[in-house]
Amino acid sequence: MSLYRSIPCPGFAAAIRPASSRLPSLAVRGVLVTTLLVGAVSPSRGDEAAKLGRPKPPSDADTIRFFESEIRPLLAEHCYSCHGESTQEAGLRLDRRAAILRGTDYGPVISTEAPRDSLLLRSVRHESEMPMPEGEEKLSGKQIDALERWVEIGMPWPDEPEPDDAPDDDPSNHWALQKLTPPPIPAIRAPIDSEWARNEIDLFVADRLADESMTPSPAADRGVLIRRLHYTLTGLPPTYEQVERFRQDPDPLAYERLVDELLGDVAFGERWARHWLDVARYADTKGYLAGGVERKYPFSFTYRDWVTEAFNDDMPYDDFLRYQIAGDQLVESEGHDRRHLAALGFLTLGRRFLNREPDIIDDRIDVVTRGTMGFTVSCARCHDHKFDPIPTQDYYSLYGVFASSTEPEEWPLIGDPKPSPEYDAFLKELAKRENAVEEFLQQRVDAARSADGIAEYLRAAHAAWDGGRDAVNAEASERKLHDKLLTEWIEFLRSARSPENPNHDLFAPWHRLRVPRDRDGDDGVAEAGDDAAAGELTSLRQKLDEANPDSIEAVATLYGEFLHESVVKNEPNAGGLAKRIGLGSGSPLDLNTERMRPRLFRGDRNRLRTLDNKIIELNGAHPGAPPRAMALVDKPRPIDVKVFIRGNPGRRGDLAPRRFLAALSDDPENRELFRTGSGRRDLVEAIVDPDNPLTARVIVNRVWMHHFGQPLVETPSDFGVTTPRPRHHALLDHLASELIAGGWSLKSLHRKIVTSATYRQRSDLRPEYADTDPENTLWYRANRRRLDFESLRDGILATSGNLDDATVGGRPVKITEAPTPPRRTLYAFIDRQNLPGVFRTFDFANPDLHSPRRHETAVPQQALFMMNSPMVIAQARRLVASTGFAQASSTADKVRWLYRQLLARDPTSNELDRATTFFDGVSENVDAPPWDQYALVLYASNEFAFVD
Amino acid sequence: MSQYDHRTDPADLFLTRRSFLSRCGMGMAGVAAGGLLAPSATVAGNPLAVKSPHYRPRAKRVIHLFMNGGPSHVDTFDPKPKLTEYHGRELPIETLKTERKTGAAFGSPFQFSKHGENGVEVSDLFPNVAKHIDDICVIRSMHADVPNHEPSLMLMNCGEARLPRPSLGSWVTYGLGSENENLPGFVAMCPGYPIQESQNWQSAFLPGAYQGTYIDTRNQEIEKLIEHIKNEHYSTDEQRRQLDLLSKLNEEHAHQRQNDEALETRIQSFELAYRMQMEATDAFDIGREPEAVREAYGDTVQGRQMLIARRLIERGVRFVQLWHGAGQPWDNHDDIEKNHRRLAQQSDRGIAALLGDLKRVGLLEDTLVIWGGEFGRTPTVELPTPGANQGKVNGRDHNHHGFTMWMAGGGVKGGYVHGATDEFGFKAVERPVHVHDLHATILHLLGFDHTRLTYHHSGRDFRLTDVHGNIVHDIVA
Hints:
By secondary structure, chain A is mostly helical. Chain A is 49% helix and 2% strand.
């Protein structure tokens, strides 16, 4: 075994390892090996490492002893604190041979051509720019000699296992990177009942169970199944009547009919939209922004509603992704319906990081790569991926794609606004608010062009004439002028001192009077013969002569009046001076509302922002505001970026042309460049390419997770090389292949899953398997599940009869307000900056980051919500105030009514007794039995909160 | 098994062991081999169950007094006679770049004097805190990365200036759990919001239970402090009766379901919640303190917050962060003398009373008290910028090159000064301590190897100090 063998970074291992016959798939192997070669070709690191794969140097007991006694202690003592396991300054670590060969982020530290000239040795000899060890004394001559010798003999290092970050296997062997091929469908065998299986899912499940001599659980009864189906497919509970009808339905296909019915319900799209919104890190706000700036996204809801609709329409999953990543191109170039522009919210609705582009782009790369492919590309932002074959260059290839995309200046309308009273009201209000902005600006324009205003600018210009930026700021602040405009005045006046300047004559008197002996000025008097404004200048001179001002204040006043009269007031005629320095001239007097806006001083800018925000708010919040898409478009000139070394935009490395990830390309060395605009269209086509080994597997796993409470692959957004092959790999591949073959229909996948015998099992624990498979990874039973936040709240509203399930979509509502809006929780306003506590308490997906799966905690604050929140109490009270409840006469009837309403079943006699006992304990001075308190207990019960 | 995961019992976090496993990035095989986990019915699902750190801790809980806006070190804990000497003149050293333009040397308008056994110098802004200087370790060589509030707040709280990452308090609560299950493990108090708002105590990818529970101390009524803590409609007796019925119904329900662990966990959570109502009410009700104690803390928002902090810490809350005020009160670009005096007066008594109380009851020994802002201020005077300051030329700009923080209790050396800025106070020059180093040291005091307190997310293990952080061993007693 070669001493130069062990290179921990999977990439370089592949780069230098001869193609091995144990690699299974030629195509995939080619991908990976060459990918990593691409990395290796870059001058930064790999080629040195590659060269080092030369014939093996002597590696005997002596050289190893030499290393252990002389070299390792030296490295440990002097180097590891900065270049060891926990810290890697400049990306260099010296505690592994392969890492030393890899070098720093900037290049190799070992030269095989000239070992003694290796940077490592030059540094310890203090011959390089970075003498090492830093902050310590220079190594002794003996130590340096030892290091030199060690490098010269090929850096012998004992054969030791590479810790943690070097998976043994070549990444091209990784199961998730293998091309998808439909696995053979196993036959049913003992001990599984040959009648048990209902579809292929069951055959795969039975096969693995049979391996372990385990058996599946019997089917749950219909009462359990209908509740399970309702919650997983629609997120809402069935009513008592629905349960009873289903239980008594004689049709042997009643179950299948129910599935179809629920898949056709709009509530299905609402439920599954929320699952996707977790992936899409959906929120209705931009996150933190400095004071006063509007944080709400006005049209985030159009994205949310688009997702709902797509799921309800069973839009093929490949199209679903196409629209979300490149919808603008499909609409603009291929004539698809404009409503699909809303899909781009997938990219645009992330946190805005105070508008820092690299972070916004990072967020977009992350949501796309982890969200659609379970590939953690954003790990490669600062350095090559630690585990997966993703070089930094690939990250910046995608970076270029998003850097070549931009948000349009105005969010595009989705379809035409429909005439309605609300729309008219909106237009009226919009005009009002736009006028307010216009008026505000006009006032500033008028003030700056009034006689007094002009005079004040002249006085300030005089005072700040030689003082530079600080003086301008001080004068502007003192006199409440716009500092940018004052600067322009000074520049304007300064340039007028030149005799060639057309305004020389106009301001010559000012300059002369301003500085009694202005050296640069002459005594130019305003009487140049052929000047178009000669008459006006003459009148100025006369005025100056008459007034004979003795102070600059007075001169300024005179000029103010004169300029206002002859320029501002004359503008409609636009001759003479008005033409030369009035509107359209570019002078400080050339001011209209549009030009005023960027010149406002800070206080006015803030005031204007408040007015602007009112328009944004109206566009976003007014019920009549026409919906728009938070779209993305391509920049006119797409760009490729260079790698940011260690993620630092100030340090650029190699160019990263826009193209797809090497690890997922057939011919990584000759990857095609993205050609269509920014490349988003090419990107999504590569993602949904049937040959992409990840996309179908990832979505199948997500869907499975939401149906069963556990995914097949434990890390739904990380299918990288550290993710072990799932126990049900064949089942995953079967479903993924079928998804593609079936035209990416998600509803077919849902149908297949929920009609399987596997899904229909009972959820009872199986003590006999408690040791062998306590976590039910082989699916020998169904998982009992607790309702998530949305289902819990929706369930409470639905059973109190208060849920508005007829309205679909629309602007978000604040569900923490009292009374709570009766909309489904999907429609809750999500403020990612200050998310109300109740969301957090109930393990809502963090809206800042793509969320692979939710945490499941049981903190007491959840119980406090059930016990004390005005929302739950209001629903309990609503129930017992309803006519249904009033019509039930006896206590037993009332209890029965509540059980049917909340739990969709009849109470047992035992439960009836408990109710009676409950009311017996009520003190006698209470007028009526506290039925609301009783109803609240049923809401709080485990039966309400869990699905068997 | 992976050497990166935090080895306390993180299984406690999740309802099921399996969902936990996926987080720790360990395969089933890894766990079986390590024999690490013994899922316990009593703690499953409770993310705040007490956990042990990597090694024996010096501190068990933390109070972070956040002087947001950036207090001036040369006016508080870092005396610079040379600066006074140059007052009004240009500094003989380079005027480093900060957020805005600054001009001449600006000697401190405050008087410094020596305190405690070691004669540590403190300005007259903090006469009461100075009395405790023998318990305080002053770090005069702090430095951060940039002179702007937002990234510096994020760096100080979350170890990362820009991207969503868990805060220090979240990491600590994740690592240690909380000793009182009837109270939140991590509490952040502020009258209103500081800049960056709740991002300062975010849990990011850690479970929501580790996020700081925000208490708006503009309110004084308990039910406004903690959400849903009080039932507006039912008496305690009525509620007890509800819970008794609930527990009977749940028992029967569970009985038919082999007493599934997840069901049991939720049953427990109601009893916890019931007790939390009393306990939290009690903890936040400073009216239960004797008059003399309230007097000692001062009847100000600061005083009230400090007193609540003490009551929370006494009850086993793991991490309390206390902000001086909404926005950025210590950000005195103008009138620094007047404003710093006012701000110090608001907090000096409360801090001193807090330290005194903790010491008296023996809690200071293993409670780490941290004082500081997100950065310090320039030794030079800030020049006028319209709209940005009032142009009074009597304030200081932000300074991340060098500033002071102090810590007390929790295993730090008292009466000790660590590191130094240059002779004018611009830049940390002796034994500089970066914010990452401070974090590594705080975690060290709490018993953690900061490189091993990790969480698997998005394909890799994350930690508070990312790839940085060196423990400052010199300040550990």
